[in-house]
Amino acid sequence: MNIFDMTMSALADFLRENGENPAKAPMIFDAVYKQKIRDFSHMGFCGRVTEKLSAIDFVELKTVRRLENESAGKLLLELSDGNFCETVLMRQSFGACVCVSTQVGCNMGCKFCRSGQIKKRRNLSTGEIVGQVLAISREFNCKVYGVSVMGIGEPFDNFDAVRDFCEIITEDKGLAVGRRHVTVSTCGIVPEIYRYADSFRPTGLAISLHAPNDELRNRLMPINKKYPINEVLTAAEYYTNKTHKRVTLEYIMLSGINDDKTHAKELAEIINGRDFYVNLIPYNSTDCGFEKSSPEKISDFCSVLKENGVVATKRKEFGAELNAACGQLLSEYE
Ligand code: SF4
Predict the structure, then answer these.
(1) Nearest CA, atom 3, ligand 1
(2) 113 C-alpha to center of ligand 1: Å?
(3) Do residues 98 and 132 lie in contact, with contact meaning Cβ atoms separated by under 8 Å?
(4) Does pTM surpass 0.70?
(5) CA of 329 to the centre of ligand 1 (A)
(6) What is the third-level CATH fold of 3-53?
């Protein structure tokens, strides 16, 4: 049992089942995440409690490689079975943000994504996702203010681990990352969007859309054949209504593929006045055969969206030179 796999309620259950007061769970969270204590005998409990807690381990991730520049950092981390994962630090104006991976590889097969060409080997555990946030904080000596679940893997293909991860990092007695500073990004697994909306503590949600019609999205993202755009946007609308959080639609700008003004018009039409926010992402070069749209194309696309009543911005670029940007993770290492 790894402490970093355990939500507050799982820890309270463990204490209860072992005949101890579950009210100790917040004290343990505080000791582990705020005071960074890694030994139960240093938490001020009596010998009996310490003995029972000794069934729980502290398993953290080992840093294999660390890269850094002014605005970003990247860690290659070793998992206990010899697999690796990568995690990224983005220095935003309001503080440090981490982009975590959720799987070793990914089976979604998005055509523009180098990370996704490494087939899924396994899901990461909750503790391994939490471990990435702890590793960034430790290696770059920073407090983490925001978390994006947008690294390698499809988060909703590893639903339970990701839901528990979000619960742990937003826990007041734990890392206390504000819920509005946590975003889970999915390629559009429709049933899990509903499930997450109905979960105990939903965070922000982003949907990788990347095309304004099914014909184009089928070509770029095979998942669209299972969950077409209208079903994805209906689920996103449900998410907004249920959680009162505006859903972000991510749109990677691919030169000559999806970046024409007609595509922008079409995108505004399918949004059809719904309260979504479009984030235009300049493509990061990989060897997948796509090119980045020019700044003029992106700005024209953004203007058409705005003229048609859609809230849209261009995302700030982070970490491309470290191969730490979207779709580039592990590409160099593998
Ligand atoms: S974009 Fe995300 S979901 Fe698609 S292949 Fe890459 S890692 Fe997987």
Answers:
(1) 154
(2) 6
(3) yes
(4) yes
(5) 10
(6) DNA polymerase; domain 1 (1.10.150)
